[in-house]
Amino acid sequence: MATWDDVGSIALALPETEASAMREGWRQWLVKGKNFAWERPLRASDLRVLGDAAPQGEILGVRVADLDVKEEVLAQSSDAVFTIPHFDRYAAVLVLLDDVELDELEELITESWLTRAPKRVTAAYRASPRRLSSGTEPPDARDDQRLSPSWSTSPDRGAPPEFLGPSRKRAASWAARSAVRFGFALVRASVMAAFMVSALIPLPVASDAIV
């Protein structure tokens, strides 16, 4: 079980993080003005859709790198990590504080921060001997934040959705997908080159003349 004090302690321990309130009065944590964790109670519209399945308790929103990573996070995390239909198109997940373990909460918040912090800050963080309070190493972030999608809209006002430096396992999964895409690109380029070469070679013209 975690509390908002736990969330604040984890978030504010990350470099250049500050706490503030959203327009609704909900808590949020930002790095250099970019939101990476926020209070997100279920709205009336969410409750109508979820019905009896709606979780009860305090809920935190955090980011993930992309929709593929979101699926991995949901599959690999505890039942405390979930999503709702309103978030279907967004790279973000929700965390039920009453059910989450502190280690898992710390990893989710830290990964979220890594995708939002400036590169110089994340580079210094990864290079430091810093450990999470659980005693484990901080999760890896993507080397280039341009790999994370940039969204023009958000699942919640004041909470723009892109996110999350994946752990080593998720980074390996991303690398494998990238290798496949690169292989397809090479095949397409080879086919195009062969087509262009063939276009330069004159082909015999069929004739219907009687000889």
Describe this structure in words.
- By secondary structure, the protein is α+β, with helices and mostly antiparallel strands.
- The chain has a single domain, classed as Aspartate Aminotransferase, domain 1 (Alpha-Beta Complex), CATH 3.90.1150.30.
- The chain has six helices and six strands.
- It has helices spanning 4-12, 44-50, 67-76, 102-116, 119-127, 168-200; strands at residues 17-21, 27-31, 34-39, 59-63, 81-82, 92-96.
- The chain has a six-stranded antiparallel β-sheet.
- Strand 1 (17-21) and strand 2 (27-31) form a beta hairpin.
- The model is unreliable at 141-153, 158-169 and 199-211 (pLDDT under 50).
Helix run count: 6
Which secondary-structure class do the elements indicate? alpha+beta
Alpha-carbon distance between the two ends: 92 Å
CATH architecture group name: Alpha-Beta Complex
Order of helical and strand elements: HEEEHEHEEHHH
Neighbour order of strands in the largest sheet: 1-2-3-4-6-5
Whole-angstrom Rg: 23 Å
CATH class: Alpha Beta
> How would the global form be characterised?
globular
SS elements, strand count: 6
Instruction: Give the helix level as a range of percent.
Output: 25-40%
Mean pLDDT: 77
Uncertain runs: 141-153, 158-169, 199-211
